[in-house]
Amino acid sequence: MNPRLDRSFFDRPAPVVAPALLGAVMVRELDGVRLSGLVTEVEAYQGREDLACHGRHGKTARNAVMFGKAGYAYVYFTYGMHWLMNVICDGLNIPAAVLIRAIEPLEGLEKMRSLRERDFGKASWLNGPAKLTQAMAITGALDGIDVCAEDSLLWFEQGISPEPDQVQTSPRIGINTTPEPWLSMPWRWKIEQNEALRLARAIIEA
DNA sequence: CGCCAGATCCACT
DNA sequence: GTGGATCTGGCGG
């Protein structure tokens, strides 16, 4: 089993942590089973100044975790039906987080299938922030947990970094009413599909 | 394929 | 009351 990413990894600004998370392995332990996937797409949300960041208006009951220490999970509910998974970055009182937007499956396929039967088998069954939380049974019950703790049911392990020229950056998705320059900030990072498959194979065969 | 609407609930400058 | 860091199915080309 690979070493876990520790708090010092996350205790940096989100735009630094986000690209570094590409190629890491996200692991969810559910009923004693390992569900895991290669992180293939992320977004960064950084600070009060970032008008797309949930922490922009200060600390509230919903976003409180964002103002705490790095390395904790921020799981929130949106659009009336979806849970989205983030990891808190940077220091105390700086609201910063990386949103996990897509994974390439590695372990626990049967379990994840049972949680996402609707699309299992399609190429698109895990490429969305609310799809992967459904596949890994990540809900508000995990909001605020420490992903750096030894006994955590959710954590990240060191994986394989993608080749830099196989990583695409672009503006963040789904923040359409956010003013510039935040709307166009290139804070989304994505591994090209072929490279993601290559890395996943390399990890599975290792 | 692409585009669009409907689903459905919670937090809130 | 409003508007989401979204997903899905249906309809059109």
Description of the molecule:
With 206 residues, the protein is α+β, with helices and mostly antiparallel strands. 19% of the residues lie in helices and 28% in strands. It contains 5 helices and 8 strands; from the N terminus they run ααβββββααβββα. The protein starts with 6 loop residues before the first helix and ends with a helix. The mean pLDDT is 96. The structure holds a DNA duplex (13 and 13 nucleotides).
Question: What does this entry show, briefly?
Answer:
The chain is α+β, with helices and mostly antiparallel strands and 206 residues long.
Write the layout of secondary structure elements.
Layout: H1 7-10, H2 14-21, E1 25-30, E2 33-46, E3 73-78, E4 82-88, E5 96-107, H3 109-115, H4 129-135, E6 154-157, E7 167-170, E8 188-191, H5 193-205
Antiparallel strand pairs: 1-2, 1-6, 2-5, 2-8, 3-4, 4-5, 7-8
The structure holds a DNA duplex (13 and 13 nucleotides).
Question: Could you list some keywords that capture this structure?
Answer:
206 residues; alpha+beta; 5 helices; 8 strands; 28% strand; DNA-binding
